[in-house]
Design goal:
The chain starts with 18 loop residues before the first strand and ends with a helix. It has 365 residues and is of the alpha/beta class. Strands 6-7-8-9-10-11-12-13 form an eight-stranded parallel barrel, surrounded by six helices. The chain has a three-stranded antiparallel sheet with strand order 1-4-5. The protein has a two-stranded antiparallel ribbon with strand order 2-3. It folds into two domains: 80 residues, no CATH class; 261 residues, TIM Barrel, CATH 3.20.20.20. The protein contains ten helices and 13 strands.
Amino acid sequence: MTTPTPSPASARGLSSQPARLCPLGLNSAGEGEPLAGGPLAFSACEVLTRKLGGRRVKRLALTQFAGDGRDLAAGLATVLGPQYDALSAPRAPLAGIVLDRPRLMGIVNVTPDSFSDGGEALAAEAAIARGRAIAAAGAAIVDVGGESTRPGSEPVPAMVQIDRVRPVIEALASDGLVVSIDSRSAEVMAAALDAGARIVNDVSALSFDPESAALVAARDVPAVLMHMQGTPQSMQQNPSYDDVVLDLLDYFSERLEACVTAGIEPARLVLDPGIGFGKTVEHNVDLMSHIAAFHALGCALLVGISRKSTIARLSDDATVERRLGGSIAAALFCAARGVQLIRVHDVAETLQALDVWTAFAQGAK
């Protein structure tokens, strides 16, 4: 019943839907419907809807989606049918990277003040060395940024960012590596793409700079759309949602429509829920628990939770340097829910964990 390459459900006018679909029974044995062309399948679905004071959840069997008529009420079928098709469709390669299994995005912060490694790679030589090292360790994408967006951080002028990242990107791109630029500024994005970057990674989902969406469309490059409530200066000052999962699903539907209107091909868009960006620990846990629901928007997913404070709050309040175990646990959780891209600091350790997890999961078939 699936269509080969459906556009995201939101790009077909399905934003702010009364019901959202979340796949259940995820497994690596191929029992059920394939999930986004990856190694997992799903065997049932939840329907998430809003209700006063909470969220209503209803379980549906896959047989209720079978056939042309679909065994659903007409109105529900109109809403959920395209979402179901989007769950099953394979995702297009991203800058030549096939998304048939979890891939790692390694982090290079060319900044003095990033929360985890600020200053470690501020010098171009150190940043280039780090980028080469994490690529050799198995990162499919090297994410280079010249502005910290940690809570409370201040904006960095575009030319300062460009001076920081351009020599790093030029060197890494000349090595043949796939480099993404982590920036909210269209001016920085353009300079990075000129230097050889192949992906834009924007914490504002191409909304901060009014020229960014047009730039991405004109350059015909993939873009990561991340959700952030507020700004880095304000985002952790009492963040609130009616329902964080449904609110973000609506938000991404609207941003996808805006990007498609700007001329960006839906297959080139990646969604990132922005763990820790304007969210409490409870919000982050709810989002991670329902991360598979975002597959129904028809795009590849990216999650960045490596070393973040939520890991400490959920365990032993460990310092940044002692959050490797929790970061790996979060990465494996994402992999078990079909997330295609996982943004991490510790590439070699995370890849080792993924390799072992994958071998065990496939061996269970």
